[in-house]
């Protein structure tokens, strides 16, 4: 039995072909603009209507803020969960002992989810923009400086932290845990048949984020 998992364009949806009318970012923006216009004219109980009716510090959200929330909701959770799942399945296929451990104790699925999130953290980096001059560990920071989140000693920040924690974190955890539970229940063995790595590049940074395509062969568990 074989399963294919793949993704293209999600991680870079904000910047790939940004100047092109046919690029991912432009297509997403056009859809969001239409949906926001409709919600402004007739706000319903859906996602866009909720954003139009939302208030912050006694005022409605600006159009730019609405657009920002919509972008995060639609683009932020695409390749993140896809890469998390494919990286985790690839690891289990390459490490039969880990799959056997999971199969013997399915309750480890939640612990494994957190470890996969830490080790295969889908976003390259989660940052914060400095709102006022401050000092952090001896470093002076000015307004609009960009800083990265850290973890000490080992609690991961795959979903950010504090009031800006990812809105989709509970859903992502549920998806990954369910996948692992079903793998433990249904799969006796896994083998990588073909893989095409997703290499993420931004300036001098280069890292393997996941897979454009991953073909696995799964051996089903037999009854009894």
Commentary on this structure:
The chain is α+β, with helices and mostly antiparallel strands. The protein is built from seven helices and nine strands. It has helices spanning 24-41, 47-53, 63-75, 78-94, 96-104, 109-119, 169-186, and strands at residues 2-6, 55-56, 59-60, 127-129, 134-136, 139-141, 146-148, 187-202, 205-220. The two termini are 19 Å apart. The relative contact order is 0.17.
Q: What characteristic shape results from the CA principal axes?
A: globular
List the strand order in the largest sheet.
Answer: 1-9-8
Helices, by number, come to 7
Strand tally: 9
Q: How much helix is in the residues?
A: 40-55%
Query: Mean of residue pLDDT?
Result: 82
User: N-to-C terminal Cα separation, in Å?
Assistant: 19 Å
* SSE series: EHHEEHHHHEEEEHEE
Note the main sheet: 3 strands, antiparallel
Helical/strand content category: alpha+beta
Poorly predicted regions: 1-19
What is Rg?
A: 21 Å
- Percent of residues in β-strands: 15-25%
């Amino acid at each position: 039995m074989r399963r294919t998992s793949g993704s293209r364009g999600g991680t870079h949806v904000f910047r790939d072909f940004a100047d092109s009318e046919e690029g991912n970012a432009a297509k997403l923006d056009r859809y969001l603009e239409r949906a926001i216009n409709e919600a402004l004219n007739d706000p319903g109980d859906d996602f866009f209507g909720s954003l139009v009716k939302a208030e912050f510090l006694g005022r409605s959200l600006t159009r730019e803020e609405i657009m920002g929330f919509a972008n995060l909701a639609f683009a932020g959770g695409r390749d993140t969960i896809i890469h998390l799942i494919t990286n985790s399945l690839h690891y289990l296929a390459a490490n039969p002992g880990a799959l056997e451990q999971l199969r013997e104790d399915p309750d480890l699925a939640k612990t494994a989810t957190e470890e996969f999130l830490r080790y295969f953290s889908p976003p390259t980096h989660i940052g914060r923009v400095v709102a006022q001059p401050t000092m952090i560990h001896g470093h002076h920071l000015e307004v609009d400086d960009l800083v990265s989140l850290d973890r000490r000693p080992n609690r991961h920040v795959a979903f950010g932290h504090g009031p800006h924690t990812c809105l989709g974190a509970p859903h992502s955890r549920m998806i990954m845990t369910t996948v692992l539970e079903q793998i433990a229940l249904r799969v006796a063995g896994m083998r990588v048949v073909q893989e095409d790595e997703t290499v993420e590049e931004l300036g001098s940074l280069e890292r393997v984020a996941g897979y454009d395509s991953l073909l696995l062969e799964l051996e089903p568990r037999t009854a009894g």
